[in-house]
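Worked example 2:
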Amino acid sequence: MVNNPNTYRIDDSNHLIRPRINTLLANAANNPLITICAGVGCGKTQAASDFIRQQKIPAMWMQFNERDNIASRFWDNFTDAIAQLDVTLSEECRKLEFPDTTDKLSQFIFFIDRSVTNRPCFIIIDDFHLACEPVVIQFIERILNELPRTRTMALICRELPKINIKALQLKGFVPDISEKDLNFTESELTEYFIQQGLPADRHTIYEVFKDTGGWAFAVNLVVRSLKRMPNYSGYVKTALKQNIFELMEAESWDALSERFKRFLVRLSLIDHLSAELVGILSVRDDSLMTELRQESAYIHFDIYGGVYQIHHLFLDFLRTKQDILTNEEKRETYKAAADWCKQNNFKIDALGYYEKIEDYESIVSILWEFLENPTYDISFYAASICERAPAATFDRVEFFAAVHLYALLRLGRWQEFSALAGTYEQRFISLPEDDNFRSHSLGGIYFVWGHMRLIMSITDDCYDFNTYYIKSANYFIKSPAEQIQKFVSPLGMWVSAVGTARVGALQEFSEAVTRTMKWLSQCFNGVTGADEICKGELMFYQNDLRAAESFFFKALELGQKYRQFETIRMALLYIMRIGIIQGNHAEFEQALKKIEALLDEENYRRRFVIYDIALGGYYCILRQAEMIPDWLKSEFAPYGHAYSIENFGNQIKARYHYLTRNYMPLLSYIGELKRRKSILFGRIEMLAMEACVHYQMKNKKQAFDVFKEAYEAAAPNDILTPFIEFGKDMRTLTTAVLNEHIAGISNSWLEMIKRKATSYAKNQSKFIAEYNKSNGINKELTVRENDILRDLYNGLSRLEIASQRNLSVSTVKTIITSIYEKLNVNKISDLVRVAAEQGLV
């Protein structure tokens, strides 16, 4: 994997590159993980840096910081480090957001696998001992087991945090570079002194090694001091035994210019030391940058990351000097760092710096972006900022109260939300009526309040969210920020948030959405078409496809006009489903192409996930399980709110498990879903699926019981489509239910479902046949299958075939089922037709 170095040399920063250390790393580099664990000042970072630079191995280097225990902040830094290897991959991963779900993690692994080349590279995380957030550590654990063979991860730390790598350790796959390995040996110390032009007599080397133990940091201090006062037994030896900070002050600090001292102390205030930001803080002063480049004892420039790195001890030393700065200097530093972090998508850091200078207006602008679809840690961080803010902030910063409420909403702190919403309402109502701040503050909190009532309607069957949205629209005197407008768009699989089967509930919800959009369209620059989607959605599930299609095309037109991407994708996904039901292959394919076109919309953050979900549904219909995106074939994500993207992915995962007959995890997922609050449409779909599963598993009683449960959930509101979309399986099940004469289920309803499901199965078979033909897919029949196909073509019954072929009737049935599957047909007449068309008989 690497070259074996065999010579000492001095690099540009005037330190010794030791072949022994490089050899240790070279021998370890063929493993998935290397740990470099040692105390402060042992040269951990330098050893890894020297190795990858000398060996010319591509590497991504991430400097871990305490604030990287906020998952989203970690992801900003981690994806920024990925850009050192692959800018495109970095952008894809950043848009994915921190993989806090199984789905996102699978997508990340897919991105990594896709980018793999045969060329080796290193993934280095420095200062990993600072990691303590479980989700961050678990992420590292998972990718360690998924890394391609050409990737090696190196964790540089003072001590390993609680990370589970026992399996790798037991296999001998985790070589450890320890403090003992990194310390100078006496022979290396001698070579280093000679390279530095210092006396290397046996007595001096012995004394230095005895006093320092080969500790790299102390050795470096000794060498620098001996260059000024070449007598180790005197001042240098005494000073070494004194406080390290005092030595730094005497050896380095006192010689610096006053301007440069203040500049260094300003750098100690912040975590990001990118070349660009350091240049901004220097006010592009060439003399300061020259001094910085010359101060190589404790500061070096990392050419891989494009950042300056300050030695931990020297950084701690600089922090003891922060009282030399004025408040204005500190404020200017934090402001410059915050603006740079915001511009470069280090949003968590930007929030932290803005909070230090109490720039809450900038904080609100960032938080609106985060809160479009936030993770738990972001919501918690946002709520914490609001809770730490001075009380007066809520009386002067627009939407600050609304941001606080939305963070509480996403955290599920309902009681706290309700109490604070009422408090904020009274607080702002008491302001003068002509006060613009009052209007916008009330508009913001009513808007979020409406969002809360919308989400809660799945639980309480109360659809009063429109009253809050209308209040919001009445108070806004100008169109609010673009980020707020995004909340109007439907974010889940359905617009409907109805959880009950009560007669009329779906219509009540739809009417509330219509009233809401009427008012919000006056407030915002454009409408989203959510009301059209909602109406079409109800028509779709009631199988009034012509009416549904009309609503969806209208919503699509509005979405395209006002660039409302969620409206566009929802309309297109429904149009795809209608295309299959109606046998309109062209309409189906066109809708999929339009969803693919959304991949070019950089402002649509969820475009990759949505496209994968569309592909998943597409290949489920085609029965091409192997083509479904990998993350949609993984384990079900833990239950979140029914509106969440994870729940959306789970719906496709359920179809994949059903298609591949992986029934046990599917039944487990459906069982968990039934114990939670769920949206009516999705619940009926899963119940219909569960009934089909039990019937195929020969559990007839359970199949009939669940089918009746699905019927009772669907009948009050005339919901039909979830049953129809199970095609031939539903035709088989409804036939069995009719034969059993199950009480409480209408026979006419069963006959209708059977007829429509049969039509769906026929259209699906044609669609599959067209796809296979256009893609050159030919599932060959076995010799026995060809024999029985000819017998069927010649009009023989199953009993006659069994007798003629000396087979059991059950074996004949099994073979015929296989023929049906391969030729994508559902009945004998279609089988005869397809066999003739394809020249099989």
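The longest strand covers residues 151-157. Residues 490 and 566 are 6 Å apart (CA to CA).
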